[in-house]
Amino acid sequence: MDNEAEKRWNFVPIHQKYQREYFDCGYPVLNDYLKKYARQNHEKGIAKTFIAISQSEPLKIEGYYTVSASVIEFDSLPKSYQKGMPTYPIPALLIGKLAVDNSVKGQGLGGELLVDALFRAVKASQEIGIFAVRVDAIDLRAKEFYLKYEFIPFQDQPLSLFLPMKTIFREFIQFLFSDKREEKS
């Protein structure tokens, strides 16, 4: 999106001024986290929470995700990824929660939240070691969402997946170059 006016949502750190009480994604555990724990965990540095707010309702939270440091156990990696990897825990960034309010489901916000989280992973990986981004899907429907974005299931945890930074870099580079080609035409 080249034009700021085309941008539907802004992604910002959680703050007390934003309306959390009306958020409903259909999963009570994700609703409760946002309402009761997200801001406190953000301020304590346990997990950083980023929220999606729209241009038209700048105080209403329409979606959110959390990120924190994590590890991937060597034995969890599929055999094809174990070659050349250390057998000790491998550094990762965890997207611990990702949720979209029912009022905006089906409008692409889930994908945009994910892209924003992956962009933060790219920025963080310039300063610290991150092999991959990992997620623990809440259910099979959420797992299917991540599979669409090339996440790879762990071999020993059916709802846990990862996306190597190498893949993320490749996708962002392709996106940037396709964006540049469109600008020239």
Q: What's the alpha carbon Rg, rounded to whole Å? A: 17 Å
User: Mind telling me the CATH superfamily name?
Assistant: Gcn5-related N-acetyltransferase (GNAT)
- Biggest sheet: strands side by side, in what order? 1-2-3-4-5-7-6
Question: What is the total number of structural domains?
Answer: 1
- CATH topology, anyone? Aminopeptidase
Major sheet: size, sense and barrel closure?
7 strands, mixed
Structural class: alpha+beta
Question: What is the approximate shape?
Answer: globular
Query: What's the average pLDDT?
Result: 92
Q: What is the distance, rounded to the nearest whole angstrom, between the alpha carbons of the first and last residues? A: 15 Å
Describe this structure in words.
The chain has 185 residues and is of the alpha+beta class. The chain has one domain: Gcn5-related N-acetyltransferase (GNAT) (Aminopeptidase), CATH 3.40.630. The protein is 36% helix and 25% strand. The chain contains 5 helices and 7 strands. The protein has helices at residues 28-44, 79-82, 109-125, 140-148, 165-184, and strands spanning 9-13, 48-54, 61-72, 90-100, 132-136, 152-153, 160-164. It has a 7-stranded mixed sheet with strand order 1-2-3-4-5-7-6, with helices on both faces. Helix 3 crosses helix 5. The chain is globular.
Could you name the key traits of this structure?
36% helix, single chain, 25% strand, Aminopeptidase, 7 strands, 5 helices, 7-stranded mixed beta sheet, alpha+beta
Please render the helix and strand layout as text.
Elements: E1 9-13, H1 28-44, E2 48-54, E3 61-72, H2 79-82, E4 90-100, H3 109-125, E5 132-136, H4 140-148, E6 152-153, E7 160-164, H5 165-184
